[in-house]
Description:
Layout: H1 2-25, H2 27-37
Amino acid sequence: MNARNRNSKMILIIIFILALVYFTQNESLVAFLNSDLS
């Protein structure tokens, strides 16, 4: 049970890091969305 919790936590951290990398790689997309909103 403890190991499973640790594994799921690690998976969540990895997904978070991957999402962070994905968004930083697509800064142009973020800039486009920001200009579209304003």
